[in-house]
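Write out the 3D structure for:
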Amino acid sequence: MANPNQEIKYTKIFINNQFVDAVSGKTFLTVNPSTGKKLADIAEGDKADVELAVKAAKTAFVRTSTWRQMDASARGALLWKLSTLMERDANVLASLESLDNGKPFPNSMYDVQGSIKTFRYYAGLADKVGGDTIPSDGPHFTYTRKEPVGVVGQIIPWNYPLAMLAWKWGPALAAGCTIVMKPAEQTPLTALYMAALSKEAGFPDGVINVVPGYGPTAGGAISSHPEIRKVAFTGSVEVGKIIMAAAATSNLKKVSLELGGKSPLVICEDANVDQAAMIAYMAVFENQGQCCIAATRTFVHESIYDQFVQKASELAKARKVGNPFTEGTVHGPQIDDTQYKKILGYIEVGQKEGAKLVTGGKTVGNEGYFIEPTIFANVTDDMTIAKEEIFGPVQSIIKYRTLDEAIERANNTSFGLAAGIVTNDINKALTFSHAVEAGSVWVNTYLAVVNQAPFGGYKQSGIGRELGKDSLEGYLETKSVSIRLPAKI
């Protein structure tokens, strides 16, 4: 059950299966976004600590190490053991997530359960990785091997701290890599707790290392380290570009990036307005709007536009905002003061540029970082709130006339992470699904992310894919081997 007074056991850097202080001795605060008050002092890792973590990870990856000699099925068993420990400590993990991130406790518990499923999915894949035999010319036996990339760096965001850890650890460990991870400085608590569980599960020394710290220092050291062979990052486009540049100029390490979005959701004239409004409501206000796939551009056909706006307003007004541990709360605070002020700034700009504020737009309470679910109508494509990623609870409802027009406008963005359509016409659904430039497309639903399907973006929304077999491939190298035979067989 939820525990707003959950003990915080782990606050140090985790290297080589040990919790240690930062080399510098520095710490930083992690704050409860519901109150704005300190939760704990966390060891602040930087370049020196990343160096130690990489050394440990590199030692764990040597050819004769316990980890490298371990059967693939045994790696899968360790992942499964980790998931069972998460089941045992689900209430602890969910409570830490709600304290550190601010999401309502049921949402945190949902993320815990989803993360357990992610680890179990990759536990099952660990011994399913194989190459091919190739019918090559000449007297040769040719085959391919799938081998782990090596030491990988992973940098995760604050909006889904535990889920993003699972998305990164799962495929990397199934592939046989070793890890140096930096959790977001706003939300390090569940990553450090998971580090302790990984040791309890039996992962060998150095396989998993967690270095909390800031992006420019700890994150920068990971992305530019010459002995890290891949960096996986989830976060903003701006930081993604910095990481990609650092990867290129250091050792040309592999890069996978899951970045921002400005996702369109198209509501067709044949849609049931009540159902469509609910889909759109969930699509934009999930996780306080702090969701990379949030459908913040809601395109509604002109024939049902006014009716839709009215229904959307009713849903937003009824959304209960409050403390994440209070029963019935479905909407918690924004992550921190910086994000809080950024969102309020976008709301102010939206009004100044002529959008109609239908509901919301104000702060809630006297402490913490709470903002009302906010809806703008009469939004045009040239407005700032229709172009830039707000990463907050702000829905822009945009009018359109034809599906072709909606598709063209939906694609008129530098992003391409997700998209959706609500319609009873299969032809419209297929036309949109095939034409829209997005990595995930949902029909008559939204946020339907599953472990088995790849997740990632077009254009500036990223490179590579998370989840599914595609994510596993990102942590593997393909080696071709040819052996000369005495004669053709």
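Residues 133 and 143 are 4 Å apart (CA to CA).
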